[in-house]
Write a structure and sequence with these properties.
With about 325 residues, this protein is of the alpha/beta class. Helix content is about 35%, strand content about 15%. It has a single domain (about 5-319), classed as Glycoside hydrolase/deacetylase (TIM Barrel, Alpha-Beta Barrel), CATH 3.20.20.370. It has ten helices and twelve strands.
Length: about 325
């Protein structure tokens, strides 16, 4: 029996988008080679989900072409609607509010996906097969377009997490509520993306797990309601946040104990650069990150096999 897959998804985007709004830089592209070498040391293959500013960054394009040529990773699409051409203003300040793609009109959504897909495929001379929505915002129309444009994998779902209180357009409905979505891979029902169906679009949800048990969460949610607050249950993610390697191992072990056929890790490309994110602000925090990654990867290497998203898709079809 084949080992579960270890899927590494990197949201590959500009520097420190948590605070940057205009004139986005892409210096983090120069820091990706160290991470790629670490992955290759353990036989793991990242999927670099790439947005517009990185797709036109010479440093990143050169790096990613080498990864593709060596068959040591994959490039997919990551779409930030507010600055991905063609530009159609949606709010008074889209750079500030960062509206979700699903908040635009359908014809604009289609056009943005078409332009971004064409840019990536012409730049990297390979078919785009994998995708993650910007700011995790996804819906049925978006899924239908991905399949139409030849994508095989989406990994936008974050199980147990409700983004509806997180605004894009301040007059909009917020992000997608994933609190009742599956927490394992499934071929999607394109009329209800929270359910499995007969489409050829594979959803590979992030590896997130509830921090507390059912009884604790029920009590906590009831208490929050009494205080007039609406908060989703606390979750753990398979993603670094500085010194949390034991938590990451715990999430991965939960997935493996449940018999899942993959565990999925994520990070932003800018988080590999000192000062590129609020979490890893200096060289010391980057060294701690790599210490944690080395320990996690060493622990996972006998338990999992490295795959890109597209390779995982093919393994699902074969099974």
């Amino acid at each position: 029996m084949q080992k579960p897959a270890f899927l590494i998804s990197i949201d590959t985007e500009g520097d420190n988008l948590w605070v940057n709004t205009k004139d986005i830089s892409t210096q983090n592209a120069k820091f990706l080679d160290r991470f790629q070498k670490l992955c290759e040391k353990y036989g793991f293959k990242p999927t670099y989900l790439t947005n517009y500013e990185m797709a036109i960054s010479p440093d990143y394009v050169s790096f990613a072409k080498d990864v593709i040529a060596g068959k040591q990773g994959e490039v997919g699409m990551h779409l930030h609607a507010w600055n991905s051409p063609p530009i159609y203003p949606l709010t008074d300040d889209d750079d500030r509010f960062k509206p979700y793609l699903i908040e635009y009109q359908n014809d604009v959504i289609r056009e943005k996906i078409l332009v971004m897909t064409d840019l990536l495929e012409s730049t990297f001379e390979t078919k785009m097969l994998s995708h993650r929505a910007g700011r995790w915002a996804f819906n049925e129309y978006y899924a239908q377009l991905l399949l139409e444009f030849g994508y095989q994998v989406d990994c936008s779902v974050t199980p147990y997490v409700d983004w509806s209180e997180v605004k894009g357009n301040p007059n909009g409905l917020g992000g997608t509520d994933y609190s009742r979505f599956p927490d394992g891979a499934y071929f999607m029902d394109l009329n209800d993306i929270s359910k499995s169906g007969s489409s050829r679009l594979l959803q590979v949800p992030m590896s997130t797990r509830l921090k507390y048990g059912a009884m604790h969460n029920t009590f906590k949610l009831a208490y929050d309601r009494l205080r007039g607050k609406k908060r989703p249950p606390s979750t753990r993610w398979l993603r670094p946040k500085g010194g949390n390697v034991l938590e990451m191992k715990h999430v991965a072990q939960q997935c493996l104990n449940e018999g899942k056929d993959y565990v999925e890790f994520m990070l932003h490309s800018s988080e590999f650069m000192p000062g590129g994110s609020p979490t890893f602000t200096d060289s010391a925090s980057i060294e701690q990150l790599y210490k944690d990654l080395e320990e996690l990867f060493e622990w996972l290497s006998p338990r999992c096999i490295g795959m890109t998203m597209a390779e995982f898709y093919q393994s699902k079809l074969a099974n």
